[in-house]
Every structure is written in C-alpha cells, then in structure tokens.
Specification:
globular, about 110 residues, three-stranded antiparallel sheet, about 30% strand
Length: about 110
C-alpha cells in the first residue's frame, strides 16, 4: 500500500522535530526518542538543515529575515537558523529562514584607533 503525504506536511513535521531536538538534552530518554524520530525521517529521505556558522552566500537557498551587525565576524555568517530548510530525497520542500551576522565595522574602527 502506498501512502501519499504532502511535502508541506512533511516539512512541518521535520520542523517540529528539529525544534524539539534543539530543546532536549543529549542524555535524556526524551532526547534519544527524538533522535530516533530524526533518524526515521532521514531514512525516509526527509532532512532538516541547520545553517548556523555557515558563511553567507547570496546564492544560498534561504530566506534572510535580518542582517545583524555582530562583533568578531570577518565575513557575513549565518548566526541563527530560525526555521530549518527541509529537503525530501535531496529536493527542497521548505526554504530555511536565517539571521545573517555582518562584521561590526563600528567596533572594528574603535579598536583600530
């Protein structure tokens, strides 16, 4: 029997599990069960993508919610994933939503003076 599930519904499930996974500890029984759900989704071809720490490239398939001046950065970098990108068998079914940190030029100028 073949079951059809809408990609949008899969993206919502993957997003909910991704958020839950981020809120559980690493050693708890809840965390292990959530990890089992993540593994099952991945075996079914559904993958949630976190972008934190990645260099920002305007060609990246994400929706930028904000650019934020951030101390200590030398390049534009994704500092927070608000909503993960989700792919199904390698095809995007949900764009990620991110906040991009930008080098804080004011702070850098102050330390150079």
């Amino acid at each position: 029997m073949s079951v059809q599930i809408e990609p949008e519904a899969l993206a919502e499930v993957a997003t909910a599990v991704w958020r839950l996974h981020g809120k559980t500890g690493t050693d708890s029984a809840v965390s292990r069960r959530v990890r089992a759900v993540v593994d099952a989704l991945e075996q079914a071809g559904v993958v949630a993508h976190r972008y934190d720490g990645m260099a920002f490239d305007s060609g990246l398939s994400v929706r930028v919610l904000a650019f934020q001046p951030t101390n200590g950065l030398r390049r534009e970098e994704i500092i927070e994933t608000i909503r993960p990108g989700v792919s199904l068998h390698g095809e995007s079914i949900q764009l990620g939503e991110v906040i991009v940190g930008t080098p804080n030029h004011v702070q850098q100028e102050d330390t150079a003076a």
